[in-house]
Write a structure and sequence with these properties.
The complex is a heterodimer. Chain A is built from six helices and seven strands, in the order βαβββαββααααβ. By secondary structure, chain A is α/β, with parallel strands linked by helices. Chain A has one domain: Pyruvate-ferredoxin oxidoreductase, PFOR, domain III (Pyruvate-ferredoxin Oxidoreductase, domain 3), CATH 3.40.920.10. Chain B has helices at about 5-15, 30-45, 55-70, 80-85, 85-95, 120-125, 140-155, 180-185, 210-240, 265-280, 300-305, 325-335, 355-370; strands spanning about 1-5, 20-25, 50-55, 75-80, 100-105, 130-135, 160-165, 170-175, 250, 260-265, 285-290, 290-295, 310-315, 340-345, 380. Chain B is globular. The chains are: A alpha/beta, B alpha/beta.
Amino acid sequence: MVEIRFHGRGGQGAVIGSEVLARAFFNEGRYVQSFPAFGVERRGAPVMAFCRVDDSHINLRNQIYEPDHAVVLDATLIETGGVTQGLKKGGSILVNCGPDSNCFRGLIDTGFQLYGVDASSIAREYRLGSASDPIVNTSILGAFAKATGLVKIESVERAIGEYIPIKTEENKKAARTAYEQAVRK
Amino acid sequence: MRQLLKGNYAVAEGARLCRVKVVSVYPITPQTTIVERLSEICASGELDAKFIKVESEHSAMATLVGASSAGVRAFTATSSNGLLLMHEVLHWVAGARLPIVMTNVNRAVSGGWNIWADQTDSISQRDTGWLQIYCESSQEVLDSVIMAYRLAEKILMPVMLTYDAFFLSHTTEVVDVPDIELVDEFLPPYQPEFKLDIDNPRMFGGLMSPDYFYEHRYTVHKASQEALEYYPEVCREFRDIFGRDYDITEEYRTDGAEVIVVTTGTITSVVRITVDKMREAGRKVGLMKLRMFRPVPVDRWRSILGNVAKVVVIDRNLSPGLGGVFADEVQAALYSLENRPSIYPVVAGLGGRDVTPADIEGIINHALSSDDPAGVPLFWGLKE
């Protein structure tokens, strides 16, 4: 079983991102669960979402406490959002990180595999959300496919096509661009 | 066809597949997305039903009293405080023998505002006469809507299906949505013997004097119990057509068990994980999943639990001053047995508190290491 935890802020699309990722795995024949941290969501407030993947029906019904992968849609959550909490040894952290910012400074020498992508710029390029509050979920999923190799970028694109009714092509292109730009840190 | 659905959408699919004719619903978290989906498919024509907007859950159920009395298949969905607002009408529906099906998302009842999983809402409707079926997965919820209409329309009793807030209602998972033609084969159109009909007038809901009321109540009781006789046929036919089996009470790895854990809802899935793990380590533990709660499948409970030393009953509900209600009912069902097991009542997970495989292992170890259940509930995981 693979467990993935999304960290974002209300409005960035973490919950939908988790849904689309689950769909991408489902498109490859896997069993999945996707769910938000159960509660009340508010724009700008920290949000978590979860995605579980396995080869058979998943009986585990709890929130994810020890993920294999953390996906961070807003780098300011690294310090305050419990990104590394419970993360499995050798697990990966993928961060939406601009070219000038120093997102990874708190994560050096933690033993986690670190990946970065400037998802905000990519989302702005494709006019996803507003310039001040870009919706970065589809971009970060493209980067996730590249960073982890767990799911094909084509499956992510197909899932976007099935699940995102607005600016579908732009979202697919954003995912593909992020796939190409994601780098190991 | 296999799809990815949230539990709430699986419910809406169930209603669509059953070709319900009247839907009357009032939104409440965490049921709201059922209302959204039903209104969409009623508007698009995917479901050819009258969607009636109302100002409260009381009216939602009252509307269905009219619809069902007029002889059509009627559906609603609610949760928590909404279910409680229906309470008066629920008694009426069962007394009037109307085969309405409703899904209830198990959510804690306020005060102490809480929108998370807790069964106290449906438990407190225990004595209304509605059949109650507790579901463990989104697949089971969808399938149970279909089975529920078949059962309800045969015995003329209403059925309430329940499932956990968020753990199912808001979780997307793989669900096999059956072909509607197969559902048609399993569930023929509803054709009641008696209905409101201006060409053939009858009186419904008249005054019932002491000369009649007692016998009337007895027939309601007998009708509920008829579900126990008819359910196996429903279950068998459903399995033959759709390939999925939903025993009225499920046994899981109970062979030679020293302790059997009794559960409902999504905690059941978590217990399966723990039972598998403990069995691998040579521990003799098993599971009884309580699916139908009303009527009480008392013979089945006795045959499963009659030969085991210890029974742990986990309740995600609370009757203050007593403890968990399932534990109370299981104890009552087993009391007349000569070699009745020791019962360990456990309350856990109220208001959506997570119950993990480690919690379940702790609960089982507590029962295995204790010789005296003391008859009082263990409140597992209480913070100091």
